[in-house]
Amino acid sequence: MKGRKAPLARELSVGEVARRSGLAVSALHFYEAKGLIASRRTAGNQRRYGRDVLRRVAIIKVAQRLGIPLATIGEALKTLPEARPPTAADWRRLSQHWRADLDERIRKLTRLRDHLDECIGCGCLSVETCPLRNPFDTLAEEGPGARLLEGDGG
Ligand code: FES
């Protein structure tokens, strides 16, 4: 008696990936345009994704939830092997790295919050004296330009 054959590893359409990942098709197109995921095109010019895309998309979603910039996520995904889906060990490595990044952003945000306490009720917004205008004493090293606060932490 013949054993039951395992189902073939089938490629996924963009609609299937969207349904299974909970993402909009437009988001998948965006990720692909940013180089975070990849597909091949059929003869009819339709996208087809390997099944590993579901784990990659899961990693992207979690990383975005942590506030990791897309460019950083893309760099991390490039370190994953293309021949197989990301494993638990891969995720452990990436998440440890992002934990450190998250800790650093929390530290900076905590400092900003504490400075904000000093500013409440003041309103001077003085470059010389307001701690929120130069919270990390780094702006002088970066040169002139409008990047106060907004440039920190992505
Ligand atoms: S607004 Fe005056 S110290 Fe920040």
From TrEMBL:
Keywords: 2Fe-2S, DNA-binding, Iron, Iron-sulfur, Metal-binding, Transcription, Transcription regulation. InterPro entries: 4Fe4S_Fe-S-bd, DNA-bd_dom_put_sf, MerR-type_HTH_dom, MerR_fam, Redox-sen_tscrpt-act_SoxR, Tscrpt_reg_MerR_DNA-bd. The keyword Transcription regulation applies. It comes from the Bacteria. CDD domains: HTH_SoxR. SUPFAM superfamilies: Putative DNA-binding domain (SSF46955). Residues 11-79 form the HTH merR-type domain. Residues 108-142 form the 4Fe-4S ferredoxin-type domain. NCBIfam families: SoxR. This is Redox-sensitive transcriptional activator SoxR. The gene is soxR.
